[in-house]
DNA sequence: AGCGTTCTTGACTACATCGTCCATAAGCTC
DNA sequence: GAGCTTATGGACGATGTAGTCAAGAACGCT
């Protein structure tokens, strides 16, 4: 019994995410989302509740994807390549942030716009940042085991700093800083990591 | 001849800024600004043009103030206190960013929301960041002269990194990271600056 | 095939919002 | 104080927006 849904939930959520991403929460109307997804407003409200609930859903999925991406780029069995993974992760990000067509990071935009007014968003943002920091810390510990980073340094502290640099690169990139500068900043940050004493 | 304005322009702009600051550009209605400033909408439109023009005006003033504040905190004749000024500037920022009641940095919020859709805002944001970087670089050069930082290092590169950390602290603070963590990150960044060889 | 359940559509409501307009008030100059 | 110019404030129009609703369509089970 029952009529099954006609739409692909994932596709609809992606389209909704793109709309919110482009114009922010306050700047996006449900009519725009209906047009972007191809759904009627009734279906939209029936399936997802309302604007806020839909956004929470979209945002949550995006945070999960962000953590997944960091994990994929930074995890590995091979301690000898841990520093290489770290460099790649940060440099990729620097280059991506410099693309003029880039719409910036949804996580950053959302945190800036909504964290103050929406506790659900605030909590999810913080948790996402903490997760990324843990992933960075795990990679840094691998770097320490391999002798790329001073084992006496606090991996958590260094991971927090690198996360900060990561977020700062995002901010500068959004303002229009060019790619070579962003990569140079990343390199300077990596150069500042403590080396093991010889 | 002519009737002079009844309102204090500066006060009105401050009130408008606070509204935009609290609820963003898209999230702020002109009615809300009229209520916050006490002006009728006719006066508001007559004096400032429209929502976008008013925002540009407010934003421009805010950027000027931001640069002025950095200048005040980081400039000085005394090279011996340059490193102290730098530490103070960054630590103050870290503590300020951790205040739960803090509404975040208007510059950061605006960059995140509008830079993609508004060239005037994008250009002003970039120019503001560049100015702050120059101020940081000048202070770092003083640190180099005084022997606190390796004179062989590029002051511009280090300034760019510190600006990045500054913006990253802002982002993490908005997400809810606590004060001690933000100060620790700042300290880690300062510890990573190259010391002059002895 | 018939039935019940759920999905879909888009018109509809009620209100918010941008920006305009105009009658009126308030100086300034002579 | 007369007359001019400009500021003021709030009503107004047109459009935008969040969310609802009812009529009908699509599907699976019997």
Keywords:
homodimer, mainly alpha, Arc Repressor Mutant, subunit A, Tetracycline Repressor, domain 2, 72% helix, DNA-binding, DNA-bd_HTH_TetR-type_CS (chains A, B)
Distance between the termini of chain A: 72 Å
Assembly state (oligomeric):
homodimer
Order of helices and strands of chain A: HHHHHHHHH
CATH fold group of the largest domain in chain A = Tetracycline Repressor, domain 2
**Rg calc of chain A:** 20 Å
CATH architecture of the largest domain in chain A: Orthogonal Bundle
Domain HTH tetR-type (chains A, B): 6-66
Protein name (chains A, B): TetR/AcrR family transcriptional regulator
InterPro entries (chains A, B): DNA-bd_HTH_TetR-type_CS, Homeodomain-like_sf, HTH_TetR, Tet_transcr_reg_TetR-rel_C_sf, TetR_C
Pfam families (chains A, B): TetR_C_13, TetR_N
Summarize the structure.
Two copies of one chain form a homodimer. Helix content of chain A is 72%, strand content 0%.
What does this structure look like?
Two copies of one chain form a homodimer. Helix content of chain A is 72%, strand content 0%. The first copy, chain A, is mainly α and 198 residues long. Chain A folds into two domains: 1-49, Homeodomain-like (Arc Repressor Mutant, subunit A, Orthogonal Bundle), CATH 1.10.10; 55-191, Tetracycline Repressor, domain 2 (Orthogonal Bundle), CATH 1.10.357. In chain A, α5 packs across α7 (119-146), α5 (82-98) packs antiparallel against α9 (179-191) and α8 (155-175) runs antiparallel to α9 (179-191). At the A-B interface, α6, α7, α8 and α9 of A face α6, α7, α8 and α9 of B. The structure holds a DNA duplex (30 and 30 nucleotides). Chains A, B: InterPro entries: DNA-bd_HTH_TetR-type_CS (IPR023772), Homeodomain-like_sf (IPR009057), HTH_TetR (IPR001647), Tet_transcr_reg_TetR-rel_C_sf (IPR036271), TetR_C (IPR011075). Chains A, B: Keywords: DNA-binding, Transcription, Transcription regulation. Chains A, B: Residues 6-66 form the HTH tetR-type domain. Chains A, B: It comes from Kineosporia mesophila.
């Amino acid at each position: 019994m029952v009529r099954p849904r006609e739409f692909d939930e994932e596709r609809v959520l992606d389209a909704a995410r793109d709309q919110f991403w482009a114009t922010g929460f306050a700047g996006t109307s449900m009519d725009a989302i209906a047009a972007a997804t191809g759904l009627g407003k009734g279906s939209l409200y029936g399936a997802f509740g309302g604007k806020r609930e839909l956004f929470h859903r979209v945002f949550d999925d995006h945070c999960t994807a962000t953590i997944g991406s960091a994990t994929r780029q930074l995890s590995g069995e091979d301690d000898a390549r841990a520093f290489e993974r770290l460099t790649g992760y940060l440099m990729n990000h620097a280059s991506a942030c410099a693309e003029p067509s880039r719409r910036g990071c949804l996580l950053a935009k959302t945190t800036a716009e909504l964290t103050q007014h929406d506790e659900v968003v605030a909590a999810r943002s913080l948790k996402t940042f903490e997760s990324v920091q843990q992933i960075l810390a795990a990679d840094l510990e691998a770097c320490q085991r391999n002798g790329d980073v001073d084992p006496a340094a606090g991996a958590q502290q260094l991971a927090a700093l690198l996360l900060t640099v990561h977020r700062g690169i995002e901010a500068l990139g959004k303002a229009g800083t060019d790619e070579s500068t962003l990569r140079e900043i990343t390199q300077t940050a990596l150069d500042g990591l403590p080396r093991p004493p010889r």
